[in-house]
Amino acid sequence: MKPLDATQVYRHCPEEAFDFEVSSELASLDLLSGHDRAREALDFGTAMRSDGFNLYVLGHPGHGKHQLVGRFLAERSRDEPTPPDVAYRFNFDDPSRPFHLLLPTGMGRVLRADIEQLTQELSTSIPAVFEGDEYQNRLHELKQAMGERQRDTIEAVRREAREHDILLLSTPNGFTFAPANSDEKMMSPDEFEKLSQDERERIEGTVKVLQKKLTHAIRQMPRLAKLLREQVVALNEEMLQTAIGAPLEELEQRYVEQEGVQAHLAAIREAIVANVDSFIDEEPDIPPEALFTRFQLNLIVDNKGCEGAPVVYLDLPTHQHLVGRIEHHVHNGTLLTDFSLIRAGGLHRANGGYLVVDVRALLMQPGAWETLKRVLRAGEIRTESLEQAYGLISTTTLEPEPIPLDLKVVLLGERLFYYLLCEHDPDFLELFKVQADLEDELERNDANQPLYARMIATLARDSALRPLDRSGVAAVIERASRLADDQGKLTARHRELSDLLEEADHWADQAAAKVIGRTHVEKAVEQQLWRASRLHERSHEMITRGTVAIRTDGFQVGQINGLSVLSLGHYAFGQPSRITATARPGAGQVVDIEREARMGGRIHSKAVMILSRYLASRYAPDSPLSLSASLAFEQSYGGVEGDSASVAEACALISAIARVGIDQRLAVTGSIDQYGMVQAVGGVNEKIEGFFDICRARGEVKGRGVLLPATNVAHLMLKADVRDAIAAGDFKVFAIHDLDEALALLTDMTPGERDDAGNYPEGSVNALVAERLEAFHKVASKNRGNSGKMNDQENDRDEEARDDDQA
Length: 807
What we know:
By secondary structure, the chain is of the alpha/beta class.
């Protein structure tokens, strides 16, 4: 069987396929090119305005989803209308429930400046009015006139009393009446006693009448005081209107089409009039500064500088960062808040546009996922703390008026999270009805390679890197195929390519090169692998020193070199494993030692079961398989998973049964089905390179090789030193289709096919297996027969014992 040649294990990218000298000559390319399914989903999801048609972008973390989706949304939103500004204003009827204002784009900051200017103007004009001579004179006139009316009322009673020779006297305790003598002075008690009885009675009766009239006059005083207050209030309002009328009317005319602004200006007018004492009293209940603060706007979203609809990426999607927060300040040891301390969240800033959130970060924040769902269902943004939302606190705080919601939420995440949410959250598909699934790989063909070159040029241009020459672009394309583990594919994960280009640019800078060439790209790849290879080297060192026993020469019965892959983060490397098998007569059981030791995974256990059924169906189709066999990964102290060792395990087991040695210079990977056909496995590049590195470290490359499934040949993109050894004929890679081809290479014997009589050619591997299994069957049958005779004898002895007992 011929091994693969160097052209089959690596697909070069011909530089002559490109019609440019350096990548800077190429036009930029939309990075969603090749992701047609995802692009159409994004187009549909962003155009669909019905409720629930939010998007979930699925893809590997290496896709650079933020960059891809960010670019798409930036272009999409540029032609969409810019949403209104959002502000909160004071609610004079209920300060705990501030009103919101939705203003045309850019009007928010203008209105805020106008109101600030208004308050500055009023803060000087209103005190000036009440301190002016006109106000003071008119106030004095009102008070003087009212004082005169009060005096006239008393004087009328006094004059009437004088007519009856009675004096109205003022005392510290009020007013009193006293009779007057001929000198119009208060009559003494002796003089009063000298008066006749009739005269005294007359005076006393008159005093009673005057007392009633005086009482009536005094009772008029509160009414007159109230009338004075009303007159003063009317005067204050009249004077206030002279101060506030013109500036407020100017603003009312300027914002005549804004109902919310008109309502706020009307509330300002009423508040000034209602709180006139703030400008007159020396120690008012509400200082003017506090009153003017209530007039201000709290502009929480200003879209003045936004071109089109906003695109907001929320990197820390907590509850507060989504719906905003209400801040507090400490005053005399007490936490206080007001409408000016309301702060916007990501939903406020993205309202009217797009909110982009990483689903992993969202699910990690307490309550954030439920908050987002609640907002989307309600169609409004309610700013409240997480404790308020769940009723965990009952303290008095603000309840701002909810703001209507109109936006698209775009979740970015891995496929696993999407399918878990579909399975476990019944609300998810109601709110996120559009999935945009990014491609992991792109086709590598003559049509796509020029486009991929443009994509490489775009990534370099976006990162402000040196341009690449044709050799550099070809090297990147070859590396993209290796990252895809497929000669016919190119990785669609932009982040890995961007990192590679940036590192290649660094090495080009170190070499003082003006462009990035193949050597710089290969240097970057080499350094990436070297930085991550410490554990790889330590693992292989244990093999080369003999601590881990791996043979690479001679023949050995029941032992084979299997190939596995170890993954550490983003780095994976191949690791040979010594697989051994034993065989003896038994009841048709193949013991998977890894499973028995609870170190084998389910897939590996399934592969061993398939192997067991393959042996039974091929070598004992019409009789029981009298075999007791075991399989083990020697010196394996971790878990074993996967079916890629099943070809190696089958060969080792057949070797143990037939007592035929296996060539230890070869290593094997691949899985088998129940008919012995070899199936593709993963990680073939790392597996081949891992075995090659071990052989090279021992100085034993010549004559060594690897067997792999023929269906994996298209996945080969081997590194240069392996390709050089293959080209020199030192290292061999064989592509096998079935187990017989593997046995022929490993045993250097003919496997053999059954003839019409059902017999294998004498001396073939399969004939040796069949003969040994037949011998196992005879031994097992004999043992079963002896066991039956012994059971009969024991039954006879039991019968005799029962008879003796009965006697």
